[in-house]
Every structure is written in structure tokens, then in C-alpha cells.
Amino acid sequence: MILLLCAGTVSAANLTVGSEKTYATIGLALDAADPGDTIIVSDGTYNENIDIWTDNITIRSENGYEYTIVDGSGYTVFDINANNVTIQGFTIQDAESDYYESGIYLYDVSFCNISDNYIINTSVGVYLGESDSNNLTGNIFSFNSDQGIYLYYSDYNNLTNNTVSNNDDGIYLEDSDYNSLTNNTVNNNDEGIELEDSDYNNLTNNTVSSNDYGIWIDYSSNSTLINNVMSSNEYSNFGVEGENLREYLHDIGVSNLVDGKPIYYWINASDAEVPLDAGTVYAIHSTNITVRDIELSTIDYGVTFAYTDNSTIQNVTVSNTYEGIYLFNSSFNNLDSISASYGDNTGIYLYDSCNYNTLTNNNASDNEYGIYIEGSSNNTLTNNTANSNDYYGICLEDSNDNLLLSNNANSNELYGFYLMSSDGNTLADNVASYNIYNHAEVGSVNLDSVAEPMIVISDSATGIYIRSSDNNVLTNNTANYNSGSGASVSSVTNSIVSPDSIPAPEYSCGFIVYFSENTTLTDNTAIGNGDYDFYSRYSTGTVDTLSLSDTPTQLSFENDESALGISGNDTNSNAFSGKENVNGYVTITRSTINPDDISQPDTMVFDFLYDDSGMSSSEESSVNLYMLSGSNWTEINGTSLNTIGNYVSANLSEFGTFGLFYVEDTPSSSPSRSSSRTRASVSPGQPSEIVTSTDISVKRVVGGVSADFDLSGGDDPVIGVSFNAKTDEGLVVTKVQVLNSRPSDVPASEGNSYSVMSIDVGSEGTISSGNADNIMIRFKVSKEWIEENDIDVSTIRMTRYHGEQWNDLPTYQEREEDGYLYFYSETLVFSIFSVVGDEIGSIAEQTPISAPMPEEETEPVEEDTKDSPGFGALMGIGVVSLALLVLKKE
Q1: Distance separating alpha carbons of residues 138 and 150, to the nearest angstrom
Q2: What's the whole-number mean pLDDT along residues 589-614?
Q3: Which of 14, 577, 674, 701 has the largest count of CB atoms under 10 Å?
Q4: Model confidence band, residue 780 (pLDDT cutoffs 50, 70, 90)
């Protein structure tokens, strides 16, 4: 019994390694070691690959890593397969012949201690695979080609006081839980600290700086971050991404800083406004949160709303982010006056069930994508700008029933607006022009087996592209001067191609409709585009009044599934003796997709629209359609002229260049007429260079019901437009453009001008006294302006430019409130308006305000009533009576 007890208490041995030591190599000492032994390594360089299978072994240098080097000659240096092993005080290098060749590799082990080592030029500095409860302390990791420290399915490990620099990834945890990272310094890596699919990890007092990316938490949950400092990381200091609510649940307090500013990471918050010193903002499962008047930069996500509703982001500037503004599963939010630019991916991104959000007056330019809405419905985008992005300006993917009004998507490098698998959307009054493709060539695409739906790169830039999307409505949009200059995919090989994987049309167009059903285009404009102004393939729908030139050349037609390309031109070099061109020229190309499909007709009906203003009845009766054959114009037989609707209808079986021509009356038989060929309708809007701001309100107008358009949300003078509709008008848009100068053809109005504006109501100004009663415009005037200009309040009025003159409107003061006087005016039509007033003391020199003359209010054609019996007397009585009423009011 005594002998057995003595044998059990044999002390651990120290085994020495080095020249003139017991063992020449670490491997030989390890072969002789028993559990509990310590191997002490003298100074020198050891070229070894060491496998450790013995538990409770310590291997340490005699004098530290500066003097003791272990070189793996391209392969893993220490391969630990035993528990409770300590590696301390070595320079460990040269293990990067293949991925996962490591300085120290631990697999399925526990309670190991790796400390005070300098690990350099390996693939992975320390790799923990399925290893728990180990300690990494005081190590230096540099110039490792993949990760400095990599944990894979490894839990409850402690990483403390390590310095990790100049690696690809600094510290990377994948599927690893309950680990603690404390007092580590991580700098000059591509990725600083990344947690992927890893839960319940604690990060405390770490300094993460000068990496490409700082701390990134990806599809992980219940992380705790305390006192971490992230600064000067090139692309992003901090970010959290998830696919469900659980993956956004973290404890991240304001003690964590990004470039010296606190992280506000709120969960289950309500009725709160984010402080102005925010470095980044996350609102998770919250309501009525306000983010306002802050600037954010160099973070993965500027502002993130996840599962957050009824909240506001306003006047926020974000730049140099991955996603500027990111909404995930968040609805009924307002995004207003945001600048989201120079991002690595998207300026504003709504993803997955983000419904009924309102985006107004935002600028998302100079990103990869401007505004991207995916898997979300019933959102309203108004007056947003998405210019000069690398791919799309505004994109809807798998998103239905959204409303896009008066947005600008210009000068993007691929598409202005792109709808992919998105149905029932409405696009109105948008501009998508000067989008220019300029990307590098892709040699070929090799598709083995059956190709799934995909987008194939093409050398085209398009204003508005509708792809695999049904029942969309496009009204009064402009898509001009889009062009392409890149090289396309040269071949698609080894494939059985399904319809959605057929290469996209490689054309630069104003509009493309592709694999889409029942698309309705009304009053749109497409001029001067690179290949076609309009292109359609595998698609059906209605195109009504498509303007194709400045003249304007206009077409209407029912689209079928043929490949259809249309372009317009103001001029043609081939003269037509004895005939006058009506309104330019249009070139139509058409081919059936499947010539063997007998259900697809060989012919197609087009209505060629014209403007008859200035035409005599005999001239109009001579209008007909002609097709260019060589250098000669040939009359199209079987056409139908409609002088009421102003169009020529033709069922075409041959396609080419067409023009409408008429026979001009001789001077003796024709009345004098204007040379103008402009259609008698209000323009889509004023030139952008004279527009200061635009306010828009949209309502569905029902006959017999009062319509009230609220425009009071901004600082502009007009606060509302109202009327009693006589008939159902459908979706009506009220657009008020405040101008910084008058249009070139509009003279100055009398009086001191407070503001000039253009007001359109309906589709191109269709609301007037013909279909509405009691049309009123409500507006406000600053008391400061009144006092500075010595204005007589009783003279403040709205005046309208109509019939080549300014006409004062009946104007009434309502109230005084918050530094403004509030008024309303009555009108019969909409056009250019000005709010004016007269200086005190000049009232005697002014003509009394009177109701406009009846002939001035007739819309759209002015009619002369001066020959009516008693006209002069009645008018004189009316003016005097109204003057007396005004003086009495004063």
C-alpha cells in the first residue's frame, strides 16, 4: 500500500529542448513527456510540425517569443488534440500553404491555454474547431492570410488582451456561443471582429480601429457589448444584420462608441427621440421613434428600423455606409428629407414586409443602388431623387401596390426605375433620363442544365424597365436620352433556357416592358433614347398617348406579345413634295416571337395622334398616314381618320418609318393661323432649374364628394387645394411647384411678389370648373415679409396667369397664427399663380380687385363674348359693384 501511494505522487518533470539540452527538438521531448510535464524550449529556431495527443502538457519558451521561433515550413505548427495543453512564449510562423493551415490548431479540446505568442504568416493564427473553455491571452497575431483568431462551433472560450493586426479577418466567430472577448486590440485588418451565427457572446473593452470593417454581428443573437471603441475603420465601424427578430436582440449600450459617438441600440422602445450625438441608430421592435437632424457616417447601417412601426426618420444625412437607411419588417413609417449618398450598397433599403411607409423628398444618389424596395407593398414614394448610382436609381423587387410619384432617377449606370416581379404598382410624374450604361464586358455565361429565372448582364441603360411584373400603371412619366456604351454577354452556352432566363433585351430604351402582363402606360414621354424609345417583348397591355419627340409624335396601341421596338424623331431627311408633316416621325419594328404560333396576329393596330390647332377643316380632312419606302413616302391604305379624337388609326402588317402628312391650304383659301403644334394641355411640370420645391398630394376623387388636398407639411406658401367634384376622376395628383423665377414666357405681375408657383391638379391639370365647383387654394404669407416690405394686408391676393395676362382672384383672409396670415382664393382653372401685395399708401393707384372676366376662365379654349348684347354695360356695373364691396371690406 505504501509503495502504491509513493508511485502516485511522482512529481511532474521539466523536459528541456535546445542545443546541448536533453532533447534537440520539441517533438522528441513531447514523445518522452507524460501528463503534467513541462517542456521548456531554449532560444533558437525550430522547423517543426508538432502533433500533441497528451493531456495536461505545457510547452513554453525559456526567454519569450523574441528569442524562440517555431517554423512550420508551410504547414500547421502546433496541432493540439488533447485537453489542458499550454503553449506559451513562441514566435510561430510559416503555415499558409493551404487554407486552415494554422499557427495553432485546436480540435475538439478543452481547457487549453495559448498565451504570449507571436503568430505570423500563417493561414489562420489560432483555429478553435469544436473546442470549448479555452483561453487565448496576450498573444499577437499579424500578417495571417485568413484569420488571426477563428472559432468554429466553439463555446465558452476567453479571448483576452490579444493584439490582432494586419490579417484578413481579425477575430472571427462562426456558430460559436458564450465566448468572452475582453481588452483585445484589433486593427489594420480587413474585418475587425465578426460574429456570424453566434449567440450569447460578450465583447468588453475591445479597441477596434483602422480596419476595413469594425465590429460586425451577422445573424447572431443576444450579444452583449460594453465599452467597445470603434474608430477610423474605412468602410464601417459597426453593424448588425439579421433575418428575424431574435437576431436583432442584443444588449448594446451607449458606452460603445463609433468615432467617438455612442451607439443607440433600442429594443422595445416607444415615444422617444434619438439624441443628436448618435453615431448609429437601431430601433428594434419599437414604435413612435423619431430620428431627426443627425449626421451618420462610416457604419454598416446608418439608421436601422427592424420590426419598428409608426416612426419617423427626418432630415438625416448618412454617407459612406453599406446601407444608409435600412427598414426590415417595419411599416407605417415616414422617411423625409434624408440624404443617403456614397454608400457601398444602397442609399435607402426597405426589405421584407415593409408596408405602408412614406418616402418623401429624400436623396439617395451616388450609391450602388439608390432606393431599393424588396418584398414590400403599399409604400408611397414622392419627390425622391436617386441619381448617379452604379446600377439602379429606384428598384422594386417582389413588391406590389406601391405608388411612385414625381421621383427623379437620372444618370444612373443601368436603369432609372426597375420593377422585377412586382405587380399592381403605379408610377406617375416620374423622370428617368440620361441613364448611361458604362460597365466592363462579360465574356460568356455557362448555364448547365435548366436555367432558373435570372438576370443576364446586358449593355443597356433604360429609363423605366418593367420585368416579369403584371398590372402596373405608368402615367405621365418621362424617360429621355437613355443610352448604353458597354459590351454585352457574348454567349450563353450549354443551357436549356426557361423563359425568365432568356437574356434581357440588350437595348438602351426609354421604356422596356418584358415578360409582363397588362401594363398600362398613359401620357408618358420617351425621347432621344439610344436604341428604342419603347421596347416590349413577351408582354401585353395598353399604351395610350406615348410621346416620342418634341413635336410631339404620339402613339396609342394595344400591346401584344410580339417583339416591338418604337422610336420617334422630329425630322426626316426624305422630303414629301406637296405635303406637310404634321408632327414628326415614328419608326416601328415588330416581329412575332414564335412564327409558328397561329394565335399571334400578323397585324397590329396603332393610333397616330396629332394636334389640330391652327389647322383648317380642309387641312385636317387631308391628314393621312404614310410609310417611307426607300426615299419615297407611300400612303397606308385602310386607315381611319378621327377628327374628334385627333388620330389616324391604322392596322399595320408592314413596319418601318411612318409620318402623318396633310395638304396645306393655299393662302387665299386659308385663315391665318399660328405655327404652334403644341397640344392644349398643361405641361408635366416646370423646368427643374426654376423649381425651388415641389409639394404633392394624392387622393381618389369621387363625384359629389368634396376633395381636400393637404399640402401643409412644409414651409411653402400653398397649404391646401379643395373642390367639390362633379364626376368621378379616379386617382388625382395635386402638384405645387414653388418657382425661383417666372417661366420665360410669363411677364411680371403687378404688386410686390411674395411667391410664384405652378399648380397642376389631376393628370396634366384636368381639374377645372368643367368637372368641379368651389375650387379654392389656401395659402399663407409670412408676417415678416409683410413688415419688411411695408405691405397693406388688405391688398394681399393671389393672381393667376391665364390668357396671356395676370388676373387677380377673389381672395379672403381666414386667420393669423404663428407668424403667418392665412388666406384662400377662388379659381376656375389651374396654371401659374403668384401671391402679391401692395405697399401701404399705393392702394389709391391700384385697380380695385375684381372677379376675373368670364371669358378668362373658360378652359381650355378662350372664347370672345364682347359682341354679346349689353356686354359693356353689364361689365361696367360688375366692376363698380365689386370695387365698392372691396372698399367697404377695407
Answers
A1: 16
A2: 80
A3: 701
A4: very high
pLDDT band for position 667 (50/70/90)?
A: low
Cell output for 350:
426597405
Q: Angle at CA 244, nearest 5°, toward 242 and 245?
A: 100
**How far from 342 is each of 45, 261, 346, 383, CA to CA, in Å?**
50, 21, 9, 20
**Dist. CA 886–CA 581, nearest whole Å:** 53
* pLDDT tens digits, 845-869: 444 443 343 333 333 333 334 343 3
Distances (CA, A) of 167 to 123, 144, 212: 9, 5, 11
Other Cβ atoms closer than 10 A to 872? 10
877 compared with 791, residue with greater pLDDT: 791
Q: Side-chain half-sphere of 177: how many Cα atoms within 13 Å?
A: 7
- What are the residues facing 602 on neighbouring strands? none
Strand positions, DSSP E, 665-795? 691-701, 706-710, 718-725, 730-739, 752-761, 772-782
pLDDT at 766: 74
Q: Are 854 and 887 in contact (CB under 8 A)?
A: no
- Locate 142 and state its grid cell: 499579424
Strands 604-609 and 691-701: unpaired
300 vs 811 pLDDT, higher one = 811
Output the pTM of the full model.
Answer: 0.72
CB neighbours of 845 closer than 8 A, spacing ≥ 6? Answer: none
* Burial environment of residue 353 by CB neighbours within 10 A (0 to 12, 13 to 18, 19 or more): middle
Look up residue 450 and give its amino acid: V
State the CB neighbour count (10 A cutoff) for residue 163: 17
Q: Where are the beta strands (DSSP E) in 478-560?
A: 483-484, 492-493, 496-497, 509-514, 519-522, 532-537, 541-547, 554-559
